[in-house]
Amino acid sequence: MFRRILIANRGEIACRVVRTARRLGIATVAVYSEADVGALHVREADEAVAIGPAPSADSYLRIDRIVDACRQTGAEAVHPGYGFLSERAAFAEALAAEGIVFIGPTPAAITAMGDKIASKRLAQAAGVATVPGHLGVIEDAAAAIPIAGEIGYPVMLKASAGGGGRGMRIARDDAELCDGFASARHEAKSSFGDDRVFIEKYIEEPRHIEIQVLGDAHGNIVHLGERECSIQRRHQKVVEEAPSPFLDAAMRTAMGDQAVALARAVGYRSAGTVEFIVDRERRFYFLEMNTRLQVEHPVTECVTGLDLVEWMIRIAAGERLPFGQDDVRLDGWAIEARIYAEDPQRNFLPSIGRLVRYRPPAGPGIRVDTGVCEGADIPLHYDPMIAKLVASGSDRGEAVARLRRALDGFYIAGVRHNIGFLSAIAASGRFAEAALSTDFIAHEFPNGFAPPAAFVAADRAMLVAAALAERRLSESEAAADAGEAATGATDVTILLDGQPHGLRVGSQGDSLVVEHDGVRHVAATDWQPGEPLLRLRLDGVEAIVQMERRPARTFRLMHDGVIRRAQVLSPRAAELLLAMPAKQPADTSRRVLSPMPGLLTAIAVGEGQEVKAGEPLATVEAMKMENVLRAERDGRIARLCAKPGDSLAVDQVILEFE
Ligand code: ADP
Question: Do the beta carbons of residue 156 and residue 200 sit within 8 Å?
Answer without folding.
Answer: yes
